[in-house]
Specification:
heterodimer; A: mainly alpha; D-Maltodextrin-Binding Protein, domain 2; 2 domains; about 70% helix; elongated; B: alpha/beta; Alpha-Beta Plaits; 6-stranded mixed beta sheet; 4-stranded antiparallel beta sheet
Chain lengths: ~400, ~290
């Protein structure tokens, strides 16, 4: 049972390491602090700078109305996103003066409401850059409301009719079979939860993988590997490492999952169902083993951590694809792109985790992806074993691809 | 006793070990010598079952079955220990892998003997190079192995600890262990070993007891130390094929008239020492390797 001893040694010495503990427990705290912090910053208006715009009002009506509407829009106390100085006059007369103001950066830009705005609702904006697009939308909406109101007044419609004509619609969300309306935090949780599962899976698999890489490199560079190999077999050594560090990743993952469950309870949300939890660990184990093979193989080939990390970056890059595509996957979990990607082993666990969490997969698909994963894991570990066996003892030698291929074929 | 029978190992186009046969007897310390790249590490790794020979066989006490790992102790050249773990944990881990009974007691005994008894909880990277070497040696013999391979075991040790290590090696020898001692420090080999085996380019070029080897390969040399060290660069030494090293010149006496040589030297230089010296292992080593490479 040497491989159990090795696994336990690797697990024990790392789980007590300062950085592992800080990393594991610090992570949720850090995420919490960042989200609270950014929330506070956004609310406090820090980071927002008022933009000053000029407005040449050729109609001698809309400018004043807009100014009023903007005053109401930005409640006192908060930093307004924009401030407008209205002047009644003509563009042809004021153009030179206003262009200078913008050029000298006294104004960020200026609007012109042409005299025929009531009939032809078009406003011109002159500015230095296009970074004001989002703010001009504000002007657009406000002016539209003012114009609609004016046109309604011209038609002599009573106020009640106006109120009848303008209203907002609410869409109330219900889960199938539930009488109670879903609250907004529930909806957000439903949207975010699949991402969290995928992210945790990603984190756990790559924490384990990175530790594995470093463990192999450490033994290689310190020559402990020779003492170990004179004592235990290659398979025990490799197997023990994979198991020990996998358990470590699993411990970390389980802790984070627990945090998610507890957070869910606090907000009265059931995020983790037993099925999700179970499949999470199944995909975790298979995903980890697949990458463990790659990490061990790479670790056995390089002398320095730097070189090994560079090689591993390419692989990590592939695994980042689901992180980039997650919104697409959550919104279109059954699109043909997502379905196709779900069958590509290096990203299968991540895509499947999202699909499972949003409840958009079939038993057939789960069984099929698991089968593909098991076959890939078998291949990955077998190849890793061959590379490990030969590469681990070759120090200070640049190993070429043809050589690696020869070991694999041997 | 370990018997190597015609073992060979090839890496790509390089024959690292080429039909090497060698017997290493129990109760003796066998020096294993050779220049860099001679195939020593490959041979040791084959002994350790870390790699397999392409052909040939290795017998441990007559059996082709490899002894259990707790019968084998291996000290690789330099390092060979985890860096950020305590002494106690490291030794305990390896003891555990080798199924050592009463490991704690044995760890304590050896650490005390090497003066590291109070450093049980020190991390290995906090230790000096010499202390790390001691620890590595303890880790090699803690499980009382029958077969021991030591690669540069004296590296980094001060004279007192070298003596202690030699003492322990003598004890192991007396207990009938089979010990292989690989080193480039010929003076250490001369002090410790009974037997010597020398390989070059994967082939055995010399094997036997120290005395036998000295008798058969060692010609007596004339050692000359001039009063003025700068004289050693004189053409005279080159013309007479003398080896110049560490402030002295060594002349082969074979085929030369000793008295004539001394007379010539005396006429040319102001001499401090002239004496007939027994050949050291180093001379034999250098001569053999140079002879092969020439």
């Amino acid at each position: 049972m040497n491989f159990m001893k090795i696994a336990w040694f690797e697990y024990r010495r790392r789980i007590r390491s300062k950085w592992f503990i800080i990393g594991t427990f610090g992570m949720p705290i850090l995420i919490l602090l960042i989200s609270l912090g950014t929330g506070y910053m956004a609310g406090s208006g820090a980071g927002i700078e008022t933009k000053y715009f000029g407005l040449i009002d050729e109609t001698a009506y809309f400018g004043a109305k807009l100014s009023e509407a903007l005053d109401q829009r930005y409640v006192t106390g908060e930093t307004p996103a924009l401030d407008i100085a209205v002047i009644e006059g003509y563009y042809s007369e004021l153009q030179l003066q206003y262009d200078t103001l913008v050029e000298e950066k006294i104004l960020d830009g200026y609007f012109v409401i042409p005299f025929d705005f009531s009939e032809k609702p078009e406003v011109r904006f002159y500015g230095r850059s296009s970074s004001n697009i989002r703010l001009t939308v504000v002007i657009e909406t406000e002016l539209k409301d003012i114009l609609v109101q004016k046109r309604a007044e011209n038609l002599n419609l009573p106020l009640e009719t106006l109120e009848d004509l303008f209203f907002d619609i609410d869409i109330n969300h219900y889960k199938l079979g539930e009488a109670e309306e879903q609250e907004i935090n529930e909806l957000v949780a439903d949207y975010i939860a699949p991402f969290i599962f995928m992210f945790l899976l990603f984190l756990g698999i790559f924490t384990g993988g990175q530790l594995l890489l470093r463990a192999v490199l450490e033994e290689r560079s310190s020559r402990v590997i020779e003492v170990l190999l004179s004592t235990v077999s290659y398979n025990d050594l490799m197997g023990g490492k994979i198991l020990g560090l996998g358990l470590l990743g699993l411990t970390q993952s389980a802790f984070y999952l627990l945090v998610v469950v507890l957070t869910g309870y606090y907000y009265d949300l059931s995020i983790v169902t037993p099925t999700i939890g179970f499949l999470y660990f199944v995909y975790f184990i298979l995903g980890y083993l697949l990458y463990a093979g790659i990490y061990i193989g790479v670790g056995a080939l390089f002398d320095s951590e730097q070189e090994a990390q560079q090689a591993i970056q390419i692989i990590t890059f592939i695994a980042v694809i689901p992180m980039i595509l997650w919104t697409i996957v959550i919104e279109n979990p059954n699109s043909s792109l997502v379905n196709a990607l779900s069958y590509i082993p290096p990203v299968t666990p991540f895509f499947m985790m999202i699909k499972i969490a949003v409840g958009e997969t079939t038993v057939t698909q789960v069984v099929l992806t698991l089968t593909i994963m098991i076959i890939s894991v078998f291949g990955s570990i077998r190849l890793a074993a061959k590379v490990f066996r030969t590469g681990i003892l070759l120090y200070g030698k640049r190993i070429t691809l043809p050589e690696i291929l020869r070991w694999i074929r041997a | 006793m370990i018997e190597l029978h015609q073992i060979s190992k090839q890496y790509d186009s390089i024959k690292a070990v080429d039909r090497l046969s060698l017997n290493i007897h129990a109760g003796r310390i066998c020096g294993f010598l050779g220049p860099n790249g001679a195939g020593k590490t490959t041979t040791i790794r084959m002994l350790m079952d870390i790699i397999h020979p392409d052909s040939g066989s290795i017998l441990f006490d007559g059996s082709s079955k490899r002894p259990p790992s707790n019968q084998i102790g291996y000290l690789p050249e330099e390092r060979g220990l985890y860096q950020k773990i305590s002494i106690h944990e490291t030794l305990l881990y390896f003891a555990h892998l080798r199924k050592v009974k009463n490991a704690d007691q044995k760890i304590k005994k050896y650490l005390d003997r090497f003066g590291l008894g109070d450093r049980l909880q020190s991390k290995i990277n906090e230790l000096s190079k010499g202390n790390q070497q001691k620890l590595q040696f303890i880790n090699t013999i803690l499980h009382d192995p029958q077969y021991v391979v030591l690669d540069e075991p004296f590296s980094g040790l001060d004279p007192v600890n070298q003596l202690l290590l030699k003492e322990i090696l003598e004890e192991m020898k007396a207990a009938g262990k089979t010990i292989i001692f690989s080193s480039h420090q010929m003076d250490q080999v001369e002090k410790v070993c009974d037997h010597v085996a020398m390989i070059d380019q994967g082939k055995l070029i010399l094997a036997g007891t120290l005395q036998e080897i000295k008798k058969s390969h060692g010609d007596t040399l004339l050692q000359v130390i001039p009063e003025n060290e700068a004289d050693l660069t004189h053409q005279f030494f080159k013309d007479h094929d003398a080896q110049v090293r560490s402030g002295a010149a060594y002349f082969q006496l074979e085929g030369q008239n000793k008295q004539n040589l001394i007379n010539e030297l005396n006429a040319t230089f102001d001499l401090k020492v002239v004496r007939v010296a027994e050949p050291g292992l180093e001379d034999i080593f250098i001569r053999l390797i140079k002879g092969i490479q020439a």
